[in-house]
Amino acid sequence: MAAQPAPDTPYVVNPAVMFHEPARHPLGWPPVIIRWLAIPRPLPRAPAPLCALPPHTSFPDYLTRLIPAPCDPPRSPEDFRRLFAHTVHWLKGPLGLRFRNTLDPYLDVDRRRYDLPSVRTLAGARTYAPFLVYIDAHHRQDERMKRRGHPSWRSVNNLDAARHVLPAQDDDAVDVFDLAVLVGMAQMQRARGIPGCVFTTRVVYPDCEGTGMILLTARVWRETLDALDEHRDTLRKIELTKAHLDVRSVPGDWETNQFLRVMWTIVRSESGDP
Question: Is the N end or the C end of the chain the one with fewer CB atoms within 10 Å?
């Protein structure tokens, strides 16, 4: 077993060294990996990046009809998927930001590559480096059932099933699959020549209440990725924070919508547009 780093250092044990089944897909990794990486529960909160929308921004009907009012009942997983998809269309169309809907991310660990299926992945227009992934609890459950050969997995992915209650999700913790996605995106940013010693990646998904989105932001050090490649005993800690994004708006007051403003801020920053 790898030697344990001192508690007050920025390093943790490498799970690839501790884990006795490294060939297992990240969808099947045990939650104890989160503890090995010293990621706390509840996750530390940090404000989401938030800028004002441009003056005279247009809000098309295909988008605003999906934004709930404060007094509306909770939204379904299908509603959230549509809201995210239409927000992406709005950012590309009326707001003219340049980015790509790209292929799913992957994770390289212990000399193996694992595909990490997402609902949607956004990447830079010129670099093809992913920076944001949309996932939800049904998607995680669906992918895990497929990996296990569960006979009913097809019905889980059906949008009719998505109208029902979300599978179990802990809003105060990170799912081990989401963590793999965050690290995998950092590896892909490094591979596509993104400079710097720290890579920032994000995952967004609906909360359990059906009233907002959770935005996870990871800061992954280049040193951490190098340690994974080299199968070192220890890694530099991954910095992980959480923000809760309200998707609701008073009808007509779209320009103050927190979710839309955060999406605009993140995508504009990653697209390189002024």
Answer: C
